[in-house]
Amino acid sequence: MKEILKNNKKFYQCQECGLVYADKETAEKCQAWCIEHRSCNLEIIKHAEKNFNF
Ligand SMILES: [Zn+2]
Question: How far is the CA of 53 from the centre of ligand 1 (A)?
């Protein structure tokens, strides 16, 4: 999991699927799921930051 600082706010990126989350716990869940299942969990990715621009 990667921390991203944007506009003085911290975001967390799942290194497997690349989705970005505002909350670390959800990003950790996403990454754990992605590694184990090699797919995304809709219940998790719905919390992802949409249209996140790097
Ligand atoms: Zn993921």
Answer: 17
- 7 CA to middle of ligand 1, Å? 23
Q: Tell whether the model's pLDDT for residue 54 goes beyond 80.
A: no
Per-residue pLDDT tens digits for 11-52: 999 999 999 999 999 999 999 999 999 998 999 999 999 988
Q: Which residues contact 35 (CB under 8 A, 6 or more apart)?
A: 16
Dump the DSSP string for 3-35: EEEETTEEEEE-TTT--EESSHHHHHHHHHHHH
